[in-house]
Amino acid sequence: MFSKEQKRAALHEKLQHLRSITNSHALNKTSIIIDASKYIEKLKQKVERLNQEIGSAETSSVDNPLPMVTVETLEKGFLINVFSAKGCSGLLVSILEAFEEMRLTVLEARVSCTDTFRFQAVGENEEQRETIDAHAVKQALGQAIKNWSKSGDQD
C-alpha cells in the first residue's frame, strides 16, 4: 500500500516528466497542465495540417504529376519533405543540386524510390550570416522540380 508521501512523490515525478516532454517552464501543477494542453492542441493542428497536405498531394498527383514539397523551420535549419505517388528517376540529383545552390548542408536524410518517391531531410544553412527562410527553400526546391520535369529525366 502506498503512503500519501509516495503518491505525492509519484505525482510530482509524472508532472516533471510531462513538463519536460512539453518543454514547459512552468513551476506549479496547474501551469504545467495548461502548457501540456496547449502543446497537445499544437500537435493536433500540425497533424490536421499534414493530413490535409497528404490528402491534397494524393488528389493532385493524379492531376499534377509534380512531387509535393513541404518545408518546416526547425530550431537550426529546416525539415524538408518531397513526395510523389510515382517513382522519379533523377529527381534526387536535382534536389541535392538545389541544396548545394542554396548552400544547405544535409544533416540527415531518408530517401525511398520504390514505387513512390519520398525524400525527407534535415538541412541547415552553411553560411549563418545569410538567413534563408522556409518559403525560399520551398520555392527553390519547387523550381528544381519544375526544371527536372522539363528536362525529361522523370519516369
From TrEMBL:
Coiled coil start-end: 33-60
Location(s), subcellular: Nucleus
Pfam family, one: bHLH-TF_ACT-like_plant
InterPro entries per UniProt: bHLH-TF_ACT-like_plant (IPR054502), HLH_DNA-bd_sf (IPR036638), TF_AMS/ICE1/BHLH6-like (IPR051358)
Domain Plant bHLH transcription factor ACT-like: 68-146
GO term, biological process aspect, one: regulation of primary metabolic process
Keywords annotated in UniProt: Coiled coil, Nucleus, Transcription, Transcription regulation
This protein's GO CC annotations: nucleus
Protein name: Plant bHLH transcription factor ACT-like domain-containing protein
